[in-house]
Write a structure and sequence with these properties.
The complex is a heterodimer. By secondary structure, chain A is mainly beta. Chain A contains no helices and 11 strands. Chain A is about 0% helix and about 55% strand. The N and C termini of chain A lie far apart (about 35 Å). Classes of the chains: A mainly beta, B mainly beta.
Chain lengths: ~110, ~110
């Protein structure tokens, strides 16, 4: 039982490049979330998926898109990366009100 | 939307002393309040949570209190140990389980 798995762990992009962050959970949870974490700002919700087939915007969705591929997988895509998107990204899934986080992806955009 | 404020931003305590972190929230409809601990370079992990129908909850050396009228909740750590050093985040739950996090408190426990 791996919990929530994120790939990659680290990534460096140039401005304007695109990439997809992958997230998968094996706890059979319906709800999944993407957060970004910046120094001094806590975690901010980018997008969430209440159940398979649904997605919705969070607090800071601009510049991102998501796909809930199936119940296990929820991916986050940056179409044209900007330096302001340099951050640590966490995926989470929720079971019985508790959110379980992945190990994070540290992204730098140069 | 919901807004969560957390104080202090840093907290230094001597080993064995108590630590208290306070949070306020704005949306009276929020009904679930978790606390997460994040060690350097690691993922946030739930340490304790409380629901709006409960005023206090305790788990060994940690406790959380909730005042719904004043819209604030607090984390109490007693008999602090060096392994309690970490960043602690409070959060309030919105609809669909969405969490609004506070900005975090860096706790440093000195031996």
């Amino acid at each position: 039982n791996a919990g929530v798995t994120q790939t990659p762990k680290f990534q460096v992009l140039k401005t304007g490049q695109s990439m997809t962050l992958q997230c998968a959970q094996d706890m059979n949870h319906n709800s999944m979330y993407w957060y970004r974490q910046d120094p001094g700002m806590g975690l901010r919700l980018i997008y969430y998926s209440a159940s398979e087939g649904t997605t919705d915007k969070g607090e800071v969705p601009n510049g991102y898109n998501v796909s809930r591929l199936n119940k296990r997988e929820f991916s986050l895509r940056l179409e044209s990366a900007a330096p302001s998107q340099t951050s640590v990204y966490f995926c989470a899934s929720r079971g019985q009100n508790i959110q379980y986080f992945g190990a994070g992806t540290r992204l730098s955009v140069l | 939307g919901e807004n969560v404020e957390q104080h202090p931003s840093t907290l230094s305590v001597q080993e064995g002393d108590s630590a208290v972190i306070k949070c306020t929230y704005s949306d009276s409809a929020s009904n679930y309040f978790p606390w997460y601990k994040q060690e350097l370079g690691k993922r946030p992990q739930l340490i304790i949570d409380i629901r709006s129908n409960v005023g206090e909850k305790k788990d060994q050396r940690i406790a959380v209190t909730l005042n719904k009228t004043a819209k604030h909740f607090s984390l109490h750590i007693t008999e602090t140990q060096p392994e309690d050093s970490a960043v602690y985040f409070c959060a309030a739950s919105l609809s669909w389980g969405k969490l609004q996090f506070g900005a975090g408190t860096q706790v440093v426990v000195t031996p």
